[in-house]
Amino acid sequence: PGKKVLIVYAHQEPKSFNGSLLKIAVEELSKQGCSVTVSDLYAMQFEPRATRNDIVGGLHNSEAFNYGVETWEAYKRGGLSKDLVEEQKKVQEADLLIFQFPLFWFNMPAILKGWMDRVLVQGFAYDLSKVYDGGLLQGKLSLFSFTTGGSKEMFSKEGIGGDIRYVLWPMQHGIMHFCGVKVLEPHICYAPENVSEEKRKEMLAAWTQRLKTLWKEEPIDCSPEWYFK
């Protein structure tokens, strides 16, 4: 109770299966007394491109633009664009970050990847010597909740897509763990479009159940073995 949750949601249609998963998370966590904030990226028309517009005022080096350096310098002097400052504030306040999205091409949708690219800047989420267990966002939890087009069999070690954990490596390890955030087991709904209405209801019920005991869960072991063993 009293925990703060940020759900970063990337789907165009509220009536979608992802929309239902979002609705359940908001209701269930609010019921527990958590305060829940949603960044609905499509509805916000969030800008996914990392550009010069992210820096307010003059550049550190106007001769050659280096996004990483410029956003780092801008962060230090409070010169990042308003949309980034707002998202960083939400992240800063959150105990738990939930990312809700459909898997596109073995990856998160571009709009969500753009959120990662632009929001998690150096100085805010990590520093050169402060990464992984030393990342600047320590003390937070994250959870990737997503739907796939392919079946569970396709995303197994023996399947055509390979183990789903390979897909999670860049997201969970390369982004969240890199920034010091602990990672809970992902929540994966396989191919909701290709299953019966009955099965979809079961998937939604399983998400509701999991959320009830979410705060008791232990994070996964943040090591390459979890992904590749």
Automatic annotation (TrEMBL):
Location within or outside the cell: Cytoplasm
Described function: The enzyme apparently serves as a quinone reductase in connection with conjugation reactions of hydroquinones involved in detoxification pathways as well as in biosynthetic processes such as the vitamin K-dependent gamma-carboxylation of glutamate residues in prothrombin synthesis.
CC terms in the record's Gene Ontology section: cytosol
Family label: Belongs to the NAD(P)H dehydrogenase (quinone) family.
Limits of the Flavodoxin-like fold domain: 3-211
EC number: 1.10.5.1
Catalytic reaction annotation: 1-(beta-D-ribofuranosyl)-1,4-dihydronicotinamide + a quinone + H(+) = beta-nicotinamide D-riboside + a quinol
Assembly notes: Homodimer.
Gene Ontology MF terms: dihydronicotinamide riboside quinone reductase activity; metal ion binding; NAD(P)H dehydrogenase (quinone) activity
Principal localisation: cytoplasm
InterPro entries reported for this sequence: Flavodoxin_fold, Flavoprotein-like_sf, NAD(P)H_dehydrogenase_qn
Organism of provenance: Dicaeum eximium
Domain of life of the source: Eukaryota
Key words of the record: Cytoplasm, FAD, Flavoprotein, Metal-binding, Oxidoreductase, Phosphoprotein, Zinc
Cofactor: FAD; Zn(2+)
Name by which UniProt lists this protein: Ribosyldihydronicotinamide dehydrogenase [quinone]
